[in-house]
Each structure stands twice: as C-alpha cells, then as structure tokens.
Structure of HIT family hydrolase:
Amino acid sequence: MADAETHMSDDCIFCRIVDGEIPSRTVYEDDAALAFLDANPLTMGHTLVVPKDHYERLDDIPAAEATDFYGALHEVVPAVEDALDVPATTVAVNNGEAAGQEVPHVHAHVVPRSADDGAGPIHALFDARPDPSDAELDDVAESIADRL
Ligand code: 5GP
Ligand code: ZN
C-alpha cells in the first residue's frame, strides 16, 4: 500500500531498508537518498542508490527529488571506484518490469568494472538490433522531441 503523505510503501523492501526495518550495509545517506551494498553483488562493491521516498520509475520522481537523487549518485560513483580501486563503473537503472526491474522502488546500480572482467558494455545486452532507415530515425526523433 503506498502512503500518499510519506511516499512509503509497506510491502516494499527498499522502503523497509530506508526505514531501518531491514538491515543493509549503508554507505551513504542524505535527506533524500540512501546508498547501500547490493545483497547479490555482480562485482565486489556493487552498490544501489535509492531515493528515500517510494517511486517506482525514474519519471515518477518529482523534479526536485530527481535532482537530489542524481546528486547522491554523483557522490557515490567516485567513492565506489576509489574504494574498489577500479577504473570504471557501469551505472544502470532497470526502469520498469519489462526492462528487468524486480524491486519496484527506483534504484541505480553502481557496478565496479575493470577491463578484464569479461562483462562488456550495456550494448552486449542486445543481440538482434534494428537497422533503421534515415526516414525511420527522423520519425522516431520527431516523435520523442514532440513530447519534450
Ligand atoms: P532490479 O532487478 O530491480 O534492478 O535490482 C534489484 C536489486 O536489489 C538486485 O540486484 C538484488 O540483488 C537487490 N536486492 C534485493 N533484495 C535486497 C535486499 O533485501 N537487500 C539488498 N541490499 N539488496 C537487495
Ligand atoms: Zn519503496
């Protein structure tokens, strides 16, 4: 049940972590955001950054809180890279169930990366890619721009 006042959802695991009901290895906290280690890390140091309020998807976050959320990410990414002594991170959001989002509370994955970890770029997620014509690209660009 989502609570309109507090933007908290009782049955949400990340809301319960934010509330301290479920323990987490918290690495960062401010008024608007929390960062903690992923319980099933893809690489050592895999960290999740969440807004404290419950929003399911990126576009559900009000603009001011979205800025705060990005501010937290901006702090956490270099700290993770430094702590794990890695040259890079993959920073990713599974934004919606069809994209693989399992916990319906916005979270950015910060995954420490190294050149020899064998995981590849996010482009490696897609085997079959479209081969659009210029006209199709023009259409899709116009369609997106019309909504902005
Ligand atoms: P998603 O697939 O929704 O993008 O990712 C959810 C992530 O949350 C997964 O990587 C999973 O390991 C992590 N996760 C799920 N439950 C818990 C939990 O109770 N504690 C922590 N720290 N991470 C969790
Ligand atoms: Zn939540």
Q: What stands out?
A: DSSP finds three helices and seven strands in the chain.
